[in-house]
């Protein structure tokens, strides 16, 4: 049984009030989520000794979230990751988007869903966030309403249930940009964590981190996580893919279809384990290469340094509108987008 409560989380520069919601389960483990950007602000789960610790990076108040440019904890939309040249063809039209990553569109554009104040509602054990994106926002067609249902159950599973509808054909690729550190926020680099990614293939990227359309085997590369590897083991490899991305920042193609376990993350020191489940075709493993210690500072005023956290972003493959061999994130007018991601926390004793 989970109890959801609400408190103040400060104000935006516009004067709008922001709230923080706490989802606490029967064991006392809890997750905090703000309606600004729908960001997960903390995830407090036990270590191998039963001691609660916060495994998500975040900020102390709303202004941190308003100022940040790293998408920490936030919901991402309408389209997670990159769209090359900030344009895509749908039907007979080419849609021109805002550019916010060189010539490309990243994570929905200049003011994506991570910078919106969502409408929040406590619905029993769930927190439901809604945002309606007007037709043409950031260049995307159709008025799109996104509804995100967050739950945190007694098995310490944080479930993110994403749905959306649009009044015109559009693209929709929603994700969450939580930065995890299973030894705890502020405990240093995630390079000592181990990860297993249930994917024999990944999408080859170029120097802009854009998929080129090629799907390659992970075998024989530093991207092979079909069995557990320590993240730092090959992160400085001279393999071209690692040089291009400055670490891990690639889309894996998890094996199988439908809702399945796509990755497992472990931290030996705390004994914490996180399993990621998704029904989407892709997952971006991003090792926090662009975190750089600059303001705004994180919780407790601490600077957030390179690789202090890592992201596992479930998604359609980036740049997928461009390639026939990639499943497309097209949402037709009147149809329903519905996908589910679960981050489940446990311990290895
Ligand atoms: C994603 C991208 C990265 C980076 C981060 C945000 O994970 O793949 O290249 O842009 O978001 O900093």
Beta strand %: 35-45%
What topology, given as strand order, has the largest sheet? 11-12-13-14-27-23-22-17-20
What's the CATH topology name? Answer: Beta-galactosidase, Chain A, domain 5
SSE order, one letter for each helix or strand: EEEEEHEEEEEEEEEEEEEEEHEEEEEEE
**CA-CA gap between termini:** 25 Å
- What CATH architecture label applies? Distorted Sandwich
Q: Which compounds are bound in this model? A: alpha-D-galactopyranose
Integer count of domains: 1
Shape: globular
Give Rg in angstroms. 19 Å
Poorly predicted segments: none
Write down the overall mean pLDDT: 98
What does this structure look like?
It contains two helices and 27 strands. The protein has 349 residues and is mainly beta. The protein has one domain: Distorted Sandwich (Beta-galactosidase, Chain A, domain 5). A nine-stranded antiparallel beta sheet has the order 11-12-13-14-27-23-22-17-20, with no helix packed on it. Strands 1-2-3-4-5 form a five-stranded antiparallel beta sheet, with no helix packed on it. The longest helix has 6 residues, at 62-67. The protein is globular and about 60 Å long. The two termini are 25 Å apart. Alpha-D-galactopyranose binds at residues 70-71, 81, 106, 209, 249, 284, 286, 290, 311, 313.
How does the SSE layout of this entry go?
Blueprint: E1 3-11, E2 17-24, E3 30-34, E4 40-46, E5 52-54, H1 62-67, E6 75-76, E7 82-83, E8 87-90, E9 93-96, E10 105-106, E11 119-123, E12 126-133, E13 144-152, E14 157-166, E15 170-171, E16 175-176, E17 194-197, E18 201-205, E19 211-217, E20 229-230, H2 240-245, E21 249-253, E22 260-266, E23 272-278, E24 282-286, E25 311-315, E26 330-331, E27 337-347
Antiparallel strand pairs: 1-2, 2-3, 3-4, 4-5, 6-16, 7-10, 8-9, 11-12, 12-13, 13-14, 14-27, 15-26, 17-20, 17-22, 18-19, 18-21, 21-24, 22-23, 23-27, 24-25
The chain binds alpha-D-galactopyranose (GLA).
């Amino acid at each position: 049984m989970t109890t959801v409560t609400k408190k103040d989380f400060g104000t935006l520069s516009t004067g709008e009030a922001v709230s923080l919601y706490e989802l606490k389960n029967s064991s006392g483990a809890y997750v905090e989520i703000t309606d600004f950007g729908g960001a997960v602000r903390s995830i407090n789960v036990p270590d191998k000794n039963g001691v609660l610790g916060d495994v998500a990076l975040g900020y102390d108040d709303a202004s941190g979230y308003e100022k940040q440019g790293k998408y920490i904890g936030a919901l991402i939309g309408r389209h997670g990751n990159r769209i090359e040249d900030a344009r895509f063809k749908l039907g007979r039209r080419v849609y021109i988007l805002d550019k916010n990553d060189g010539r490309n569109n990243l994570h929905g554009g200049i003011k994506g869903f991570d910078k919106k104040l969502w409408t929040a509602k406590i619905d029993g054990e769930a927190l439901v966030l809604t945002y309606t994106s007007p037709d043409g926002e950031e260049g995307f067609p159709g008025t799109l309403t996104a509804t995100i249902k967050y739950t945190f159950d007694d098995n310490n599973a944080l479930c993110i249930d994403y749905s959306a509808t649009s009044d015109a054909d559009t693209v929709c690729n929603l994700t969450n940009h939580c930065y995890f550190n299973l030894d705890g926020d502020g405990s240093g680099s995630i390079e000592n964590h181990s990860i297993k990614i249930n994917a024999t293939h990944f999408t080859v990227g170029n120097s802009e981190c854009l998929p080129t359309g090629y799907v390659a085997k992970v075998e024989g590369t530093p991207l092979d996580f079909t069995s557990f590897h320590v993240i730092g083991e090959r992160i400085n490899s001279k393999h071209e893919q690692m040089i291009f991305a400055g670490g891990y920042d690639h889309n894996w193609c998890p094996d199988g279809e439908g809702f399945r376990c796509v990755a497992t993350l472990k931290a030996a020191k705390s004994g914490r384990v996180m399993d990621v489940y998704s029904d989407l075709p892709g997952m971006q493993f991003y090792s926090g290469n662009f975190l750089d210690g600059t303001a705004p500072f994180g919780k407790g005023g601490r600077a957030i340094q390179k690789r202090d956290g890592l992201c596992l972003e479930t998604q359609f493959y980036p740049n997928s509108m461009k390639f026939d061999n990639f499943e497309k994130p097209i949402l037709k007018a009147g149809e329903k987008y519905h996908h589910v991601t679960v981050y489940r926390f446990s311990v290895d004793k």
